[in-house]
Write a structure and sequence with these properties.
Oligomer: single chain
Radius of gyration: 18 Å
Structural class: alpha/beta
C-alpha cells in the first residue's frame, strides 16, 4: 500500500494518506501523535478492505517544541478535510483511540463535513495538557495549558490540580502498585472538583453517525463512565446525530477491531493488552470484544457508507 505523505511545512498538516481504489470515502485516524505508526497502517489496511481510504493524522509540533499533548490546534482537521476534498473525497469519517477519541469528538463537533465519528475509550472533557521528555527526573508532566486550541484560542480545560512532580509521581506509583500501565487516579483526582460545563466536549453538535466505544476494564481512565455520561448528555439535549454507546466488559485501553490487530500471524493487539493486568488475566474475553468490535464497525461502514 503506497501512501502519500503530507508535510507540516508545505501542506500545513502532517499525515499519511492511504488510497483505496476509486472510493470517495475516507476515514481520518488518530492513534497517537505519530500518523505513520504500525496501528495507523493496520487501520489503513482494514478500512481499505472495507472500501474506504484513510488518512493517519500525525504530529503538529515542529522540532523546537516538546512532545506530549498540549495546545493541539483543531484547525488541523479543517486543513485535512480541505485537502481530502481536492482529491475527490466526499464522505469523511473520523476514528480516534484514547486521546485520539477526544480529538475525534471535538473535530466532529466543529466540522459538520464529518458524518461518521467513532470515539474509542475517549474522555468527554477537555483536560489539562501534558508534556513528555526529560525534566528533573520526570518523563511526563502536566503543563498548565489546554490540550486543544481553536482559532488561536485555548479551549477551557479541567486541570489535574497537581504539581508537575505530583502528576508524574502518581502515575509511577499507580503503575508499580497495580503492575500495569495506569493513570486512572489522575482523572479521578481531577474530578474531585466540579467540572465546569464549558470543559465538556459539545457532542450534541456532532452530525451523522456517532459511535462511542468503551471498555469497562480500562485502567488508563474510566472510559465506561465517560461513555455513559455522554449518553446521558445526548438524552438531555437536542442533537442531529444518530448516536450509540457500546461498552464491552473487557478490552483494556487498546480496544482495536480484531483483524486490525493482526499483521500476518502476529496478533499485535493480543500482545499490547498484556501491558494491562486485565489483558493478562482476561485475554480470551478481550479477544472476543475485539471480534465483536470488528463486526460492528464493518457493518457500520456498510450501513452508513459514511
Amino acid at each position: 500500500m503506497k501512501s502519500i505523505h503530507t508535510k507540516l511545512k508545505t501542506d500545513g498538516f502532517e499525515s499519511w494518506f492511504f488510497p483505496s481504489g476509486d472510493t470517495d470515502c475516507c476515514v481520518i485516524t488518530l492513534v497517537d501523535s505519530e500518523g505513520n505508526n504500525i496501528v495507523n497502517k493496520a487501520l489503513a489496511r482494514w478500512f481499505g478492505k472495507h472500501g474506504c481510504c484513510s488518512l493517519g493524522l500525525g504530529k503538529w509540533q515542529d522540532h523546537t517544541q516538546r512532545d506530549g499533548l498540549h495546545e493541539w490546534p483543531l484547525e488541523y482537521f479543517g486543513k485535512a478535510i480541505d485537502w481530502l476534498k481536492t482529491r475527490g473525497i466526499k464522505k469523511i469519517g473520523v476514528y480516534g483511540i484514547s486521546f485520539g477519541g477526544n480529538m475525534a469528538l471535538l473535530a466532529a463537533s466543529l466540522y459538520p463535513d464529518i458524518t461518521l465519528t467513532v470515539a474509542c475509550e475517549a474522555i468527554d472533557i477537555v483536560m489539562e495538557g501534558f508534556e513528555e521528555g526529560k525534566k528533573e527526573g520526570m518523563s511526563e508532566w502536566c503543563c498548565g495549558k489546554s490540550t486543544f486550541t481553536f482559532q488561536g484560542e485555548a479551549l477551557p480545560y479541567l486541570p489535574y490540580g497537581l504539581t508537575e512532580h505530583q502528576y508524574y509521581d502518581r502515575i509511577v506509583k499507580s503503575c508499580k502498585k497495580h503492575h500495569e500501565l495506569r493513570s486512572r487516579e489522575l482523572f479521578q483526582h481531577a474530578e474531585k472538583q466540579a467540572v465546569p460545563e464549558n470543559c465538556f466536549i459539545p457532542i450534541e453538535q456532532i452530525h451523522g453517525r456517532l459511535l462511542i466505544i468503551a471498555a469497562a476494564d480500562d485502567s488508563m481512565w474510566e472510559s465506561e463512565k465517560y461513555a455513559m455520561r455522554m449518553e446521558q448528555r445526548l438524552a438531555s439535549l437536542p442533537h442531529p446525530s444518530e448516536a450509540e454507546a457500546v461498552i464491552y466488559p473487557y478490552g483494556t485501553h487498546l480496544l482495536l477491531p480484531y483483524s486490525v490487530g493482526r499483521i500476518g500471524p502476529l496478533d499485535i493487539a493480543a500482545l499490547a493488552v498484556k501491558l494491562f493486568r486485565s489483558g493478562r488475566k482476561n485475554g480470551k474475553e478481550c479477544k472476543e470484544s475485539r471480534k465483536q468490535l470488528d463486526a460492528l464497525l464493518a457493518n457500520e461502514l456498510i450501513f452508513t457508507q459514511l
